[in-house]
Amino acid sequence: MLAKNTFRLPAEWEPQSGIQLTWPHAQTDWAPMLDEITATYREMRAAIERYEPVLVVEPPTNDTWARDHGFITLVDNQPTGTMCSQIENRKFKNCKLLDFCFNGWGEKFPADLDNAINRRLYDQGLLRGEYVDCLDFVLEGGSIESDGRGTVFTTTQCLMAPHRNQPLTREQIDERLRQTLCAERIVWIDHGRLTGDDTDGHIDTLVRICPDDTLLYVGCDDPADEQYDELRLMEQQLQSLRTLDGRPYRLLRLPMPRPIVEDGERLPATYANFLVVNGAVLCPTYNQEDLDREALRLVGRAFPGRDVVGIDCRSIIRQHGSLHCCTMQFPEGVL
Q1: 260 SS3 class
Q2: What's the rounded Cα separation, in Å, for the pair 11 and 17?
């Protein structure tokens, strides 16, 4: 285990050295729509490269969800700007590259090739930091959110879902997360799930931590919507939460996209699945002009001074993810 408080899990809005994209190919579930999803990935890549480098991972892979098979990186508990960049030697100890087990969201899908990506990247010398083997524990990057100051959010339904880390109890998982992620506390969100979501309720589809103790979260105003009750209960829980120093969070409520259905199945469209990069936030859009505009406005309020860039994610949600799910950021000095 890592010593508590020696390192920390940075917030996504802290300085980054680059973004990982794991590229779609014909041996993935994207095969029937490969041209369409490749065009979307090219758009994402071009948007990110206006702000920082992109690391593209190509075959062999099972799939493309870099958020969930990518390294989770801890940085030294120092002021921003002295994390990793001062040391050029790949063997430096100022960042920890945590390689958790990815098992296809509870053994729903094959993941053996994806689960080997991190070790391959490290062995090829593409990343700076200390490799830490955490493969005895299942954890996906989309299931956690950090404020960079000791608080990590997650969801009960995901981390307690079947085929993740049974027979560990919630208390045992909480302790493992606090020790491994060097967190002061784990905030468990007990409600909220999107229809069509394969991840069992990843936090990055529901609630995102933003600067100045702000939470951007998805809401639903239609009592007839099958997601209404769970999202209402989630909102009530967020209203009751307090920061480590006892203050209520500033809450900004994202709209819920109107249902997008394919072959009779509702797809898990969400505006919460945005990506923060250096100087900008890339936000998913769904060709719903009024709601897209409102979502981008709210993201801009949460991240003042950053560009807000819309990316049409209708192709991505056809495989039950969105923009943030496709990416993983590396802190300053790692890539």
Answers
A1: coil
A2: 14
